[in-house]
Amino acid sequence: MTDALELDALWEDFHRVVNMTSQELAAWLRVSDADESTEPLPDQAGPPTGQHVLAILQKRRTDLTDDDVQVMYEVVDTVTEQTDRDNEPRAEDSDLRHRLMTIGHDPLKP
To answer: In 3D, which of 81, 55, 78, 68 has the Cα closest to residue 2?
Structure first.
């Protein structure tokens, strides 16, 4: 497991880049997985990483597992890399926006 100072920094970074609430993320995962005739069960909606991010958002820092920490690093790296590369995401970048939203980051949210 990560040491306490590193975990504190990761926790802050994760909650900085994941700017959607757990309710917003859960709703987005359901909508993004739905099609014209079916909608997945709420606990099965979205990709595994999105489901894991949602689970992390519902945990306390002291309850994190090693898998949670790994996903948190991946999410922070992914969001940081995409936002650094693209500077100001635009509304017309819907594919990028939707990919980032599946991991809890809405680039158009203030």
So the answer is: 68
Question: Please, what is the Cα angle at 98 between 60 and 86, to 5 degrees?
Answer: 95
The model's pLDDT over 68-92, given as tens digits with 9 standing for 90+, comes to 999 999 999 999 998 776 565 565 6
Residue recorded with tokens 């969001």: 79
Residue reference for tokens 């909606």 = 45
Residue 110 has which token pair? Answer: 């203030």
Answer positive or negative: Cα dihedral of 18, 23, 29, 32: negative
Which tens digits make up the pLDDT trace of 30-67? Answer: 886 555 555 555 565 578 899 999 999 999 999 999 99
- Name residue, tokens 């100072």: 5
Q: Which string of DSSP letters, residue by residue, matches 26-46?
A: HHHHHHHH--SS----GGG-S
